[in-house]
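Task card 7
Instruction: Convert sequence to C-alpha cells.
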Amino acid sequence: MLLFFIGAMIAAPDAAPSRDLQKPQAEKKICRKVETTSSRMTKRVCRTETEWTVEDKSATAADLKRLGAR
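Output:
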C-alpha cells in the first residue's frame, strides 16, 4: 500500500501555474513632451496608447468645433 502512494506521488505531474490564471500584461505606457502656456519648459506626460487615442480625437474635435464657430 505504501509503495502505491509513493509510486502515485512520483508519477503525478508538478502543478504548474496555468497561463489562463496569470495576470494580463498591463498596456505599455507612451510618454510625450507637452508644452504648457505658462512655462518654456515642456512637461512629460505618460499614458497608454488607448488614452492617447482618446485624447487626440477629443483635441481634434475641439479644434474643428472652434474653427467652425468663426
